[in-house]
Amino acid sequence: FVSVYLKREGQTVYQALLRKGVIVRPVANYEMPHHLRISIGTPAENERFLQALGDTLADV
Predict the structure, then answer these.
(1) Domain count, the chain
(2) What does the alpha-carbon distance between residue 58 and residue 55 come to, in Å, rounded to a whole number?
(3) Which of 4, 13, 16, 58 is the most buried (most CB within 10 A)?
(4) Owning domain of residue 37
């Protein structure tokens, strides 16, 4: 997995992605409130994640 810094609260982005069926993990419990833990998947899964993340960041 990778940890990604966001300019938004990770929990907020996590909830929005979850509503879209994309599962990532917030890592605020590791004192990283603006990060998400993202697992590496297949090329198709990664493309779906990137599309959902882009849509989410435009909305949140």
Answers:
(1) 1
(2) 5
(3) 13
(4) 2-44
Distance of alpha carbon 23 from alpha carbon 41, whole angstroms: 11
Q: How far apart are the first and last CA of the chain?
A: 23
pLDDT digits (tens, 9 = 90+) for 5-56: 999 999 999 999 999 999 999 999 999 999 999 999 999 999 999 999 999 9
Output the pLDDT for position 60: 80
Helices (H) and strands (E) in the chain, counts: 2, 3
Residue 23 corresponds to which amino acid? I
Confirm whether 27 is domain-assigned. Answer: yes
pLDDT of residue 51: 98
Residue 50 lies in a domain: no
